[in-house]
Amino acid sequence: MVTQEDTVFIQGMNPSTTEDELCQHFGAIGIIKTDKKTQRPKVWMYKDKATGQPKGEATVTYEDSNAASSAIQWFDGKDFNGATIKVSLAQRQNTWGGGKGGGGG
Q1: What SS3 class is residue 62?
Q2: What's the rounded Cα separation, in Å, for the pair 33 and 65?
Q3: Fewer CB near the last or first residue (10 Å), C or N of the chain?
């Protein structure tokens, strides 16, 4: 796993929370990065694969890592939209390392 210094992972959200509410709340601490493809804020709300219902989890990617650190200090363990949330630095699978590439010939 690789820690993403500019991205926070939010758990325990009220499942009815919208992306706009998330952007408004977490955007108060720093500038949320814009996705180059969609031109929308870089926010991902997780859904249950089987039901398609929100899981109450999300990631928010900031322009810089200082904002992500501040978001953890300000929002972790606090109430957001009627639920106490857990905020931590996001981690992703390390898809780059590992095996040696085969090639040539």
Answers
A1: strand
A2: 11
A3: C
